Amino acid sequence: MTDDAIFAAVGARRQDLIGLTQDLIRIPTLNPPGRCYREICDYLAARLMAAGFAVQFVRALGAPGDSDAHPRWNLVARMDGALPGPCVHFNSHHDVVEVGHGWTRDPFGGVLDGDRIYGRGACDMKGGLAASVVAVEAFLAVRPGFAGAIEISATADEESGGYGGVAYLAEQGHFAHVDHVIIPEPLHKDRICLGHRGVWWAEVETKGRIAHGSMPFLGDSAIRHMGAVLHEIETVLYPMLAGRVTAMPVVPEGARASTLNFNSVHGGEAEPEAGYTGLPAPCVADRCRIIIDRRFLIEEDLGDVKAEIAALLERVKAQRPGFAYEVRDLFAVHPVMTDREASVVTTTAAAIERVLGRVADYVVSPGTYDQKHIDRIGRLKNCIAYGPGLLHLAHQPDEWVGVQDMEDSAKVMALVLADLLPAA
Length: 424
Fold this sequence. Notes:
The chain contains ten helices and 16 strands. The chain has helices at residues 3-11, 14-25, 37-50, 122-142, 166-171, 222-242, 302-319, 343-356, 371-376, 403-420, and strands spanning 54-59, 73-80, 83-93, 112-113, 116-118, 147-155, 180-183, 191-196, 198-207, 259-267, 287-296, 324-333, 336-337, 361-365, 383-385, 400-402. The chain has a six-stranded mixed β-sheet with strand order 1-2-6-3-7-15. It has a four-stranded antiparallel β-sheet with strand order 10-11-9-12, with helices on one face. Strand 4 and strand 5 (116-118) form a beta hairpin. Helix 8 (343-356) packs across helix 10.
């Protein structure tokens, strides 16, 4: 089988690739709360069963967010070849984030304008999902008899951690017989993403004592205590983090250092209910909470990351009478990075060069994606992210994916199948 046969098979499906992407965008799989998950799984199941795949619907019962109103549905489709051999699995998440403001086009219209298809999820990652489906169909048209197996999954909740999607599948053993995983996240068609940084989310709460706002000296302001914590982070921790640079090829450049973000700050009285127009009551805040989002490097240890925050809080406590605090873990993910010599990496790199005529670039994502669950729970290291789209367009208004980028990525993925799954 020549590369030209693969290229022709993918190219012949260009209009189908456009239509599939548009159809997927038009199913508003918003997360939260988790809308239309079964609808998109049903749509994909009909197509894949027509191509000869055996299809399984998996609801992540008991996972975060799963409810009868918004069940966490996942689709796993499998085709076994004529002879035993390795299994190649394409995993895409089907959920998308909220629409937000600033759109000039219908977020769920799937409008084609020139080479671009617009819509929420076009880039992240329904374009990648469509490209992987078309790549598989083109490969099967050229090599109907192959050794091994092909799987395609469409999974829930990646945008909220993946616990109702890939994590649940991994816990149920769905990756036990998989050899290679490609996740078509939008890292661009000439890049292979080897992994991602680590993350630790935690809630830090400072405690005070309520009193009348006209006599604040009778109370103890938790907000002032939190101000001292923020000052210590600003003046001591931030300079330390900026000085730590990883050898991981993280993009963009600024993410090669350790980072910390404040996701939220809440102190004092709760926000008034909708419709309330009165003034707040005069009280000293007895609680203040921040959510910290700490992204750490493969060279850092999670225990040390947590101990660094604990030591910072203890320094503040030593300086402030009455200072009391509590730290609550929310979740943590360790950094992961697939070896450049892994077979799925070298095969994809060779395919990129054959399709695009240039050497593949190797990157690491600044944020986590579902590779974390395949690596840690599924115990499968042979996993990469590779797909069409520009990462900076994800979650933005007027999000789009390029048709040519999808077609080129589909050619790469089809070539990977041809190289990893021999003829029967």
